[in-house]
Amino acid sequence: MPQWLCNQLMRAFYNKNRRQIRLLNDCWFFYRTRKSETDPTTSQLQ
């Protein structure tokens, strides 16, 4: 997970900002699935 995303998630949890937590969570899953589609080594592991 990128450091900037981790920092924003920690800040959102600290402030109990549910909207931002959901948004960042969606961003992380989008980033992770998109990265696995472009990287053939990770798709072999699944």
TrEMBL record:
| Pfam family for this entry, one | spore_CmpA
Question: What is the superkingdom listed in this entry's lineage?
Answer: Bacteria
The protein here is known as Cortex morphogenetic protein CmpA
Species annotation: Paenibacillus ehimensis
